[in-house]
């Protein structure tokens, strides 16, 4: 957030609408020969000219190349923040919140744990998003400056798996919510999943400018729908309420839920800067940081708490409890609360809540294409939007198969994300904050794809691998409980974050001394 690179006056004077050069329109126009494109034959020549076609294409063709400073013409930092607001005000956040009572936590404890973990974890992606503005680099490309050219491919692989997983979870939730709202559940969850995935794919085609525009307003109708849901539920014994006696959860339960929340929130750190690439460098980075932090913290905590409140109250309301147990997703509960008295209007609001998953999926699919190109550099020869098409071909069958074991999948998947994210955040934070002293001028954008000039990455990979030696014994999952976790609970995320941070600080100077870079 400090040491922001100065921007030329020409980039400041240009407006978003008139000077955006994502597709290098001026260069394309300058290289075209007017004589060559005149007459009937010229029409066909123009159609066969890839560069000329790209000039008018709706979809975004950009790859993982750093964005030049002259192309960073966006001036509204709020539009960047609203992306994250729309990405978190959705049915996945609501469903994740319902996990707290199922793990044995009372409502009050659930709310405190959500607040205590989500708010500090929101600081990390909010800080990492400033990298995109000040460097013009995608998050996984920036990762090369600590993990190295080849080490970043490993990180990108794990991040791609994370993107696949979240997209699958969103598709399952949205599809089953659409099924719940259809008459007599005539619309199958499979069809609902296909509808949601196709919508998200089409929007992600169009690139970051379209995503910015849609996400700026996408959260509002969803938030209104959730507000109406609260009003329809009411308070008291038949609505939202606290139980007369709540269980006193032990440290294992609290830490397990904390691991889920950390994975849910901090996983955005691996794609945060992808959304701020075109923000002008004259915009104060602290404004972007504060706005993004508030967007993350407010959107996530509110919907997570809402999910926890409904799940806790459902324990003494048979109709709500039946709705939650008849389907692995909260779709039937949402539809029950909204449509009981509101009828078709309530069903319409339920559909909006189902579609809220698109706000999360479109950003994930966009970053997924960039992530895969970083993982396997030859893919940069393809337009970015081609990769999400292949990804969707993989996501659809997995979502359809996995819909019957949603809650087990959600708990295990999000918890596992927290472990690798902690290692990644620890290394990148140590490199940028301590070693580079937050100076963006210490990065050389010209070597972003030169593996011989980038750091070897041995220090980052070594710090991550060594940290696993203590993280694994501290893991507490349904399929594995480490020997240390049996006594203290799941501290794998916290220990991994601190240990990778410290180990990188010890190993990086040694790596630089040996390799000279």
UniProtKB/TrEMBL annotation:
Q: What GO CC terms are in its UniProt record?
A: plasma membrane
Subcellular location, in the record's words?
Answer: Membrane
- UniProt cross-references to InterPro entries, sorted A to Z: Pur-cyt_permease, Pur-cyt_permease_Fcy2/21/22
- What's in the keyword line of the UniProt record? Membrane, Transmembrane, Transmembrane helix, Transport
The membrane topology of this protein is:
Multi-pass membrane protein
Q: What would you give as a GO molecular function for this chain, any one?
A: transmembrane transporter activity
Q: Where are the transmembrane segments?
A: 77-99, 111-135, 147-169, 189-211, 218-238, 250-268, 288-312, 348-369, 381-401, 413-435, 456-475, 487-507
Keyword Membrane on entry: yes
Write down the superkingdom of origin.
Eukaryota
The family assignment reads: Belongs to the purine-cytosine permease (2.A.39) family.
Task: Fetch the PANTHER family from UniProt.
Answer: PURINE-CYTOSINE PERMEASE FCY2-RELATED, PURINE-CYTOSINE PERMEASE FCY21
Could you identify this protein by its name? Purine-cytosine permease
Q: Which organism is it from?
A: Malassezia japonica
